[in-house]
Amino acid sequence: MTQVIQTPEQQFYLAKLLGYSYEIVYKPGAQNRVADALSRVHCLLITVPHLDFIDKFKAQLATDEDFQQWMTQVQLQPEEFPHYQIRDGLAFFKGKLFLPTHSSFKQVLLEEFHASPLGGHSGIHRTYGRLQENVFWFGMRKDVVEFVKNCSVCQQTKPANHSPYGLLQPLPIPDRVWEDISLDFIVGLPSFQTCTVILVVVDRLSKAAHFGMLPTQFTAVK
């Protein structure tokens, strides 16, 4: 086995198979009749999938005069647009369906690839990964991030992936004044007598406070 494990699906099944003792034996497709039975049914050749989305998308593009002019320019000057192709009234960028930035079908695709049963409300990276394999528009990653973060279903049902919050541990209450103090520094103040820092010392029991000026470069001694 020299194939590199790349996709999340391959990693998932590899983790499942690690618990078994097995031997992989290669069998050519012509001999593996059980696995290839469905793929070699001749009747399937006449079954052509048809997507209503494509027809509606074409109808929208037909009314977009600016985009139609751009597609005409791509066809007349292909050397100026090396990564673009026009086929059957659609634009493609590096083999992927290209959508105008202002197209309303971006929302349709985001819903399909994230919120539908096919999308399964996956995270940002998986949703973007599925989209970029098929379509492209400028600013697609930003749109995916915003769409997934604003998904109401994900916000209500997705578990938190961060570490659990730490438990609050209140400090014990001191018995005497100035037995326990807290201090902090106020920095970035206008200079006064070469001092730009104020040291604030507060007694935790009485809340009495003392203030002292310090130079910018202060140390523990001064």
Could you describe the 3D structure shown?
There is one protein chain. With 222 residues, the protein is of the alpha+beta class. It folds into three domains: 8-46, no CATH class; 52-157, Endonuclease III, domain 1; 181-215, no CATH class. Helices cover 33% and strands 16% of the residues. It has eight helices and seven strands, in the order ααααβββααβααβββ. The protein has helices at residues 8-17, 33-36, 52-62, 65-76, 105-115, 124-132, 140-149, 152-157, and strands spanning 84-87, 90-93, 96-98, 135-136, 181-186, 195-203, 209-215. It has a four-stranded mixed beta sheet with strand order 1-2-3-4. Strands 5-6-7 form a three-stranded antiparallel beta sheet, with no helix packed on it. A hairpin with a 2-residue loop joins strand 1 and strand 2 (90-93). Helix 5 packs across helix 6 (124-132) and helix 6 (124-132) packs antiparallel against helix 7. The termini are far apart. Residues 103-159 form the Integrase zinc-binding domain. It comes from Trifolium pratense. It holds the Pfam family Integrase_H2C2. This is Integrase zinc-binding domain-containing protein.
